[in-house]
Write a structure and sequence with these properties.
Blueprint lengths: L11 H6 L16 H10 L5 H15 L1 H4 L4 H14 L7 H10 L2 H8 L17 H16 L12 H33 L1 H11 L13 H23 L3 H17 L7 H14 L2 H13 L6 H13 L6 H10 L7 H4 L6 H10 L43 H17 L1 E5 L9 H39 L7 H4 L4 H16 L9 H24 L1 H16 L2 H6 L2 H11 L15 H18 L1 E3 L15 E3 L1 E8 L2 E9 L1 H10 L3 E5 L36 H9 L2 H15 L3 E3 L1 H12 L27 H37 L9 E3 L5 E3 L10 H6 E3 L3 E2 L4 H13 L7 H10 L1 H9 L14 H16 L7 E2 L3 E4 L3 H9 L3 H6 L11 H18 L3 H5 L6 H11 L5 H13 L9 H19 L1 H21 L4 E3 L5 E3 L3 E10 L2 E10 L1 H30 L5 E3 L2 E4 L4 H16 L3 H13 L6 H8 L3 H12 L21
Antiparallel strand pairs: 1-6, 2-3, 4-5, 7-10, 8-9, 11-12, 13-19, 14-15, 16-17, 18-19
């Protein structure tokens, strides 16, 4: 729909500069005239509308739908070029032309005009074009080439414009050729239509209960998609007070689909409009809607009758209330289930209760009550009455009640505004005159852009409204979505959007459709917030959060209820108030893209600047050099030849960098919270107070199957996952100011790459200047070097900006307590929602963060802190805990020196594997040494316990692999086992034998096989790394060895990767068998069933692999081609992705179990996947819980349960085989082969997983 639209912005400058005379001409294909287009421009208040119409007509022909049909490349260009000659011919009479104007389709005009991306009905193409006409056009081409072009229709300044349009037509050729391919494919598929119809009839299954044929699932999906899109449109119309349009649109689609025997069946469509009329007390329209539902055989639910009751009461038609109640009873609905089956906003419930009590004075509805407790077997111990331990102040010692209330208000204000201004840490104080001048110029431009875009936005919206009135369309379009916010709010969002774009690096330019969709999402989120304010949900949420704040700081309450349980109690308390759990209605993807595209076109057209003002070195000319602030470019992508991308004007981007705006604008949902997140109570509700938070991180069509599975499961099955997310989000954090000051000092002092602080772009060499007299070889060398430098500068600028964001956010939250709301990826792995600054970030971020809640070190806390310091350095990986502690005591002088003089001392901390966390730990130890009693010192420092190659630990436990368990510390031992060193030793043994046999490459590798060389391939083999990927990893490590020959890197890596994989197969034999079973199972599932691989984690989270290819398939229906979208699994990704994804889901399950049991024991807990954090004093307690939960998890028959799930899901073991085969189109042989493989669970070894309980180095 939008592919050929919105071309107008590319020639607006030519439109405004043209000044030649106008002749009345028409498109030879759709018969629209330039006068017709002039009228459209006139409605948009163009001063030279006639010339605009003429210029647009020339482009219109290149975009004409009729022109595109079955036209070859030469004919297309010929018809366009031939238009230039038409100006010398006489036109038809004015009366005939006026008649043609009346017959012209406004919908077609608007679609070509590109201003209103509406859902117009696809027009029937004109079949009058013939081969003879094409030959005539071909002759015009040759005639045109032999003569000089007559530019009587085009002003002299428009020659560039015409060239641009010729380029546009050439650009369309590929799209047209693709249409030819579709038409040819359609012709072939028409021959197979009868066979397809027969197959469809076979696939239709008889419903034994009703004896009726079920509609194929694919048709249901299309219908459900239509109803979902229509609900979003009706909701926006009602919000914009366009109630009559909502009713007309609903009636149109209702009648249209009822006529073909497929009426709209989703009662929510009708309820959406019923709610609007109920609020206005319009009982006449309420009655009409119920009649419409009756005609379409749509059964009203209790919510529908509740709206009728509300409308009757508001209209003071009390005599109708009794009849409505009788209707409810006759439809076998229970009015006492009012609170459990209906949702209410504003004062709806109050009105409805008054209405009912007029007839039933003692009416009291049943109050809803959600089930409590866990159904998961692994969490039955948490269902007891044992009180949960909590510290005296869960908010942390730094946060008083008064401060907490102030921060809560700040958080609400930030989320209401949608953004937060944060001061940059690299700004100079005071600002020099040059920077001040640049900032003033930028403010002037932004002010001009705001007024210009506001005027343009209002003109375009007025144009859309006038065309909608002229057409009197009752179909869905974008106008309600574009007007759901105030114009000034939209323009402010556009300015902030451009600020973000202007800071892109030179090498980065996002795909246009991605940006359009992202910007459309921002508009939608603001709309949802406005809806909450309008419906009273905003005020009710604040009131409930005030009560929740009291719970957080009350030790007694927090020991009696977990957060989710208490939040549900608050909802029961305010059951007669607006329901804050009402789910937002998301806009369809095409709407998000359309809205973003509409607004980006305004930015493209109206954001101009004078290029002469950007540089003082250039000579300023008398005239202005006006340039667009953004432009589009085409870049090659995988599987697609070119994609259109958006880039900021490079001169303007440089200007933004030079003026260094004082503040950075961050969206509210990318920053830490100043108060605890709202507990997760369902898949839709949790996280930020008002800013929308997705439970599953990945959005879009590829994740919809998993969301469907989540909605199909009972909420009680999701309690373990959402409670774990709430637990992790409740951990408060503070900024380590001393470490932050050191990081900021190095950042502002040109950075330090050795300490992961990137240098500014000014510190990198400039591009080489090409000399005229240089040889070709010298020029080519400089060009290649410039390409490398340009890429390097671009990459380092991106890293520098990333660090600027991290440190600026940390500085803004320096004296505040903060929380990180959490969510999941599709595998169940947990991540903080704020992307820039969090504890999962790099070493700098982790070194800056501390627990807000401190705890006395106790007897063993100081020892654990010292051991943690040595772990961070990476110096004693093969040593025992006792040896690490002794080593720390030996180097206390270096630790104190690093703490007291981080930049001027010996710099011992800089040599660590994790220097910033090491520096933070040195500072903490130095403070403890100065305290009179270390055991009473209140410590805020987090200590980590990291799994020993955690993926292999899960594989070894799954296969009960004795040798593998020993290598990854599942078995008790006096010293920690290092699987990476063990693999390096085995490879070295093989190398020595090969060297004796005279293999040359093995001799070259002597002395170069180390733990570091083989670590990455070993670590990633569990996650499905291929031999090619492992070889590349080894090549990178060999390049860092100065003494190794560079020309032997590839050969040596190829040799090593074979030996690394063979060593792993020897050491982890059971692991290899399980991995092969995973791979073969996923491969057959995706090939035979044409479905994605899915499973359920041990704590109840459904997982669906999102590796799908959305493909357009053309079929025929009623002798007409129909294009439908079909989702097919990408077999290679489904196959390679399943083994690592399943293991990731297990390590996530283990982490969540540990988090929930730590909460019960009052242990502060945070995690970075398989690395668990807690206070030094509670390390021992957390270690015990961690081991107990790993053993409990792997004492379950995980592989057998997975096999059973696969067989039931993909082979239909509990169902009639014939029915399953007919429903899924699978042959009996393939089904038997699949069942046989899925039931062939690999055999296991003899390892006793309970030994993990006594393993010191399992997590250490």
């Amino acid at each position: 729909m939008f592919r050929l639209g919105y071309k107008l912005s590319r020639f607006h400058s030519a439109v405004n500069n043209s000044s030649s005379k106008i002749l009345n001409h028409e498109c030879p294909f759709c018969k629209n005239t330039n006068s017709h287009f002039s009228r459209l421009f006139l409605q948009e208040n163009y001063q030279n509308a006639n010339i605009s119409g003429r210029v647009y007509l020339s482009t219109h022909i290149g975009l004409c739908e009729n022109l595109k049909k079955k036209k070859k490349k030469k004919a297309i260009i010929g018809e366009y070029e031939n238009l230039i000659q038409i100006g010398n011919k006489n036109s038809n009479t004015r009366l005939e032309r006026r008649a043609k104007i009346k017959k012209s389709s406004p919908a077609n005009t608007l679609k070509q005009f590109g201003v209103t991306p509406s859902l117009f009905k696809k027009e029937t193409r004109d079949p009058s074009s013939s081969l003879a006409k094409e030959k005539e056009h071909a002759s015009e081409i040759s005639k045109f080439k032999r003569t000089t072009t007559d530019f009587s229709l085009i002003a002299a300044d428009d020659t560039g414009f015409i060239d641009a349009q010729l380029d546009n037509i050439t650009e369309l050729n590929e799209q047209i050729e693709q249409e030819f391919e579709v038409e040819r494919a359609t012709a072939k598929q028409q021959q197979q239509q009868q066979q397809q119809q027969q197959q469809t009839n076979k696939n239709m299954v008889v419903d034994k209960s009703s004896g009726k044929m079920k509609i194929p699932t694919r048709e249901n999906d299309l219908k459900n998609r239509l109803e979902k899109n229509l609900i979003a449109f009706l909701d926006v119309c009602v919000h914009n007070n366009m109630i009559q349009q909502a009713f007309d649109t609903l009636r149109l689609y209702h009648m249209k689909h009822s006529d073909v025997g497929k009426p709209l069946s989703d009662v929510r469509l009708y309820n959406c409009v019923l709610e609007a009329y109920a609020l206005n007390g319009n009982t006449k329209q309420l009655f009409r809607l119920f009649e419409l539902m009756k005609f379409g055989k749509v059964t009203p639910n209790l919510q529908s009758y509740v709206y009728w009751l509300e409308g009757a009461y508001r209209a003071s038609e009390f005599d109708k209330i009794g009849a409505i109640l009788n209707k409810i009873n006759s439809n076998k609905l229970n009015i006492y289930n009012l609170l459990t089956e209906c949702t209410f906003v504003r004062n709806q419930l109050e009105i409805v209760l008054k209405a009912i009590r007029l007839k039933i004075p003692d009416f009291n509805p049943v109050k809803p009550k959600k089930p409590s407790g866990y159904v998961c077997k692994l969490l039955q111990d948490l269902n007891g009455d044992k009180p949960r331990e909590r510290f005296s102040n869960p908010l942390g010692e730094q946060l008083s009640q008064q401060n907490f209330q102030n921060f809560r208000k700040q958080q609400i204000d930030v989320e209401k505004a949608g953004f937060m201004k944060i001061r940059r840490i690299d700004t100079q104080s005071p600002v020099d005159e040059k920077t001040k001048k640049l900032r003033n110029q930028l403010e002037e431009w932004e002010s001009t852009w705001k007024s210009t875009m506001l005027r343009s936005y209002n003109q375009r919206i007025a144009f859309l409204r006038s065309e909608a009135n002229y057409k009197n369309s009752k179909r869905t379009d974008l106008l309600p979505y574009l007007t759901c916010l105030k114009p000034d709010v939209i323009v402010d969002l556009m300015i902030r959007e451009f600020r973000t774009i202007a800071q892109f690096s030179d090498s980065f330019s996002p795909v246009m459709m991605v940006l359009h969709r992202y910007f459309g999402c921002k508009i939608m989120d603001r709309y949802h917030l406005n809806r909450k304010i309008q419906n009273g949900i905003y005020e009710q949420t604040i009131k409930m959060y005030d009560d929740y704040s009291a719970y957080i700081s009350d030790r007694k309450l927090t020991s009696q209820h977990i957060s989710r349980e208490y939040w549900e109690l608050l909802k029961e308390k305010y059951v007669e108030k607006p329901d804050i759990g009402i789910r937002n209605i998301d806009w369809p993807t095409y709407v998000l893209i359309g809205v973003g595209k509409f607004l980006y076109e305004i930015m493209h057209k109206d954001m101009k600047f004078d290029e002469n003002l950007l540089s003082e070195t250039k000579t300023k000319k008398e005239g202005k050099r006006i340039r667009s602030a953004i432009y589009t470019a085409y870049r090659k992508h995988d599987h697609v030849k070119f994609r259109e991308e958006i880039k900021p004007n490079p001169h303007l981007s440089e200007f933004y960098r030079l003026c260094k705006p004082e503040n950075i604008f961050f969206d509210a949902n990318v920053l830490p919270m100043l108060c605890p997140p709202i507990p997760w109570t369902s898949a839709e509700n949790g996280g930020y107070i008002f800013a929308h938070t997705n439970l599953i991180r990945q959005a879009g069509i590829t994740i919809k199957h998993q969301l469907d599975r989540l909605n199909q499961r009972s909420i009680q099955n999701l309690y373990p996952c959402i409670d774990a997310l709430t637990t992790l989000g409740e951990t408060p954090w503070i900024v380590n100011s001393r470490v932050l000051d050191v990081a900021m000092s190095i950042f502002n002092d040109k950075g330090c790459e050795e300490l992961s602080i990137p240098r500014p772009i000014s510190e990198y060499p400039e591009l080489h200047k090409l000399e005229i007299h240089a040889t070709k070889k010298e020029t080519a060398k400089k060009v290649m070097e410039n390409i490398r430098l340009k890429q390097l500068r671009s990459e380092m600028y991106s890293l520098w900006c990333d660090m600027l964001y991290k440190l600026s956010i940390a500085n803004a939250f320096r004296d505040k307590v903060m929380w990180f709301p959490h969510n999941l990826d599709f595998r169940g792995r947990v991540y903080p929602v704020p992307p820039h600054f969090n504890h999962i970030g790099n070493d700098v971020c982790r070194g800056i963060l501390l627990f807000a809640k401190g705890e006395p070190l106790g007897e063993k806390g100081f020892d654990w802190l010292k051991i943690h310091l040595i772990n961070l350095t990476g110096l004693k990986k093969r040593s025992s805990l006792k040896e690490r502690l002794e080593y720390c005591n030996e180097i206390l002088h270096e630790i104190v020196d690093s703490a007291d003089k981080p930049l001027t001392g010996n710099g011992w901390w800089k040599k660590s594997d994790e220097p910033w966390q090491t520096l933070a730990c040195c500072m903490e130890i130095a403070k403890i040494l100065k305290s009179p009693d270390p055991s009473t010192y209140v410590c805020h420092f987090p200590v980590h316990q990291d799994g020993s190659c955690n993926g292999l630990q899960h594989y070894a436990a799954l296969g009960r692999d004795v040798e593998g368990a020993e290598q990854v510390n599942l078995m008790p031992s006096l010293l920690p086992q290092d699987v990476y060193s063990r693999v390096a030793e085995k490879v070295e043994e093989i190398r020595k034998l090969d060297a004796v046999d005279g293999i040359e490459i093995s001799k070259l590798l002597e002395g170069h096989i180390s733990r570091k060389v083989v670590k990455q391939p070993v670590m990633t083999t569990v996650y499905g790394v291929t031999r090619y990927g492992a070889r590349q990893q080894i090549v990178r490590q060999l390049k860092e060895i100065p003494s190794f020959s560079r020309d032997q890197d590839f050969k040596a890596a190829s040799y090593l990767v074979v030996n690394v994989f063979s060593s792993l197969e020897t050491m982890f034999s059971a692991t290899k068998k399980i991995q092969e079973w995973f791979t073969k199972s996923a491969n057959l599932i995706s090939i035979i069933t044409k479905k994605p691989v899915e499973w359920v984690t041990p704590i109840g989270l459904p997982v669906v692999q999102p590796y799908l290819l959305v493909k357009a398939v053309t079929t025929t229906k009623d002798k007409k081609p129909v294009i439908r979208m079909e989702e097919l699994p990408v077999t290679r990704k489904q196959t390679n992705g399943f083994p690592p994804n399943y293991i990731h889901s297990l390590d996530s399950t283990h982490m969540m179990l540990t988090a929930l049991f730590c909460q019960r024991e009052g242990v502060t807990f945070a995690s970075v996947h398989d690395c668990f954090w807690t206070h030094p004093s509670t390390v021992a307690k957390m270690n015990k819980i961690c081991r107990e939960q790993f053993v409990a998890l792997h004492n379950e028959p995980l592989l057998e349960l997975l096999s059973k799930f696969f067989v039931e899901k993909y082979c239909g073991s509990d169902r009639d085989t014939n029915v399953f085969i007919s429903e899924n189109g699978i042959s009996q042989k393939k089904l038997n082969d699949l069942r046989k493989l899925l039931m062939a669970v690999p055999s296991k070894g003899s390892f006793d997983v309970n030994k993990v309980l006594k393993s010191t180095y399992f997590f250490s």
